[in-house]
Write a structure and sequence with these properties.
3-stranded antiparallel sheet, binds protoporphyrin IX containing FE
Length: 319
């Protein structure tokens, strides 16, 4: 995590270096830039900067391709308008693999490990694509929602800002610093409760089970709602309210599962939580943010994301 932590902060500052004080920015897009730079840096050992612009549209189309739609019910339905975008993302991944085969780097990034494991290009591409999508779109949504929640709750914004600004600007955040940011931690947990980027999960039953008076036969796909579970009035007081301090107490087992659970729990759950903390701490230490008046709705895309986005005014803190 130490190497990743450096990247989380450097990549955040890199993306924010284009910000100008007093301007308005849409945070879903801004957080996506940061999440993409981080993911490719940490997992593929590469710099995504030259591709941020050229692959932007293709990545959004690839996300639209896997978003819920009629194809879930009619999987054979022809789907037009996505192939060129997917081919462009594939082109990037295959060239990354080719380049690494011919120019190995000393490192234990995922791409180098997959090549060393002897996988063929096609399989490596599959792994990279999964990681690229699962590892950046979720963090993008979490960061954008967290800024939205903070914008709506000035008290919490002030507390988090005070926490992170207590660390002098010239000191990079350490893992211990991040651990000490209790309010930030609660804010992120509460954001994940109200707006879980992955709002539903699924499992196959390996035997028949009884649940709430229903019998579910063996070998059925069961879909469960993370969103509804985390807002269930039987388990959560004032379930629709943003109340980060509720995380002073540990939630009851299986009432809170933004990263799923059991053997198939999100492989990136630690990475994602430290990343979100480091990105927000880096941002809020240097910038004041203010939510602009707007209507934000929940959109069920590849992840649950704020639509049309989260517009904020940013002001750089005088040094
Ligand atoms: C806020 C960020 C994230 C959220 C909310 C999230 C959520 C989830 C959820 C709910 C699952 C399904 C788990 C289950 O079925 O029990 C999952 C699986 C997965 N996630 Fe994440 N995730 C996040 C970040 C990441 C990151 C950063 C990576 C990669 C570095 C990642 C990679 C994966 C992969 C590969 C799986 C499939 C794991 C498997 O089937 O074994 N996720 N994630």
């Amino acid at each position: 995590m130490q190497g990743f932590l450096t990247s989380f902060q450097l990549r955040t500052r890199q993306a924010l270096s284009t910000w100008q004080t007093g301007n308005h920015y849409e945070m879903l897009a801004e957080m996506r830039k940061i999440a993409l730079l981080i993911l490719v840096d940490c997992l593929f050992g590469a710099d995504f900067t030259p591709y941020l612009q050229s692959l932007w549209h293709s990545i959004l189309r690839t996300l639209a391709y896997i978003s819920p739609g009629l194809w879930l019910i009619f999987p054979d339905l022809p789907r037009f308008g996505y192939q060129a975008a997917i081919a462009k993302v594939d082109g990037y991944l295959f060239s990354l693999i080719q380049h690494r085969r011919t120019h190995p780097i000393a490192g234990d990034d995922l791409l180098s490990l997959l090549i060393a494991a002897g996988l063929d290009d096609r399989l490596i591409r599959d792994q990279l694509l999964t990681m690229l999508i699962a590892g950046h779109d979720t963090s993008t949504a979490l960061l954008a929602w967290a800024l939205y929640c903070l914008g709506k709750s000035p008290d919490h914004l002030e507390k988090v800002a005070a926490e992170v600004r207590a660390v002098p600007l010239e000191n990079p955040f350490s893992l211990d610093d991040l651990k000490s940011f209790t309010t930030l931690e609660w804010v992120l947990q509460e954001t994940l409760r109200l707006y879980p980027p992955i709002h539903a999960g699924n499992r196959l039953t390996n035997r028949a089970i009884s649940f709430n008076g229903f019998t579910i036969p063996a070998h059925q796909r069961v879909i469960y709602s993370i969103y509804l579970t985390q807002r269930h009035p039987d388990f959560w007081q004032s379930p629709n309210q943003f109340m980060p301090e509720r995380f002073l107490q540990r939630p009851a087992a299986w009432t809170y599962l933004p990263f799923g659970g059991g053997e198939r729990i999100c492989i990136g759950y630690l990475f994602a939580q430290i990343e979100a903390k480091a990105v927000l701490a880096t941002l809020l230490r240097e910038w004041q943010v203010q939510l602009l008046p707007q209507r934000v709705s929940l959109h069920m895309g590849a992840t649950l994301e704020p639509r049309p986005g989260v517009r904020m005014k940013v002001t750089q803190i005088a040094r």
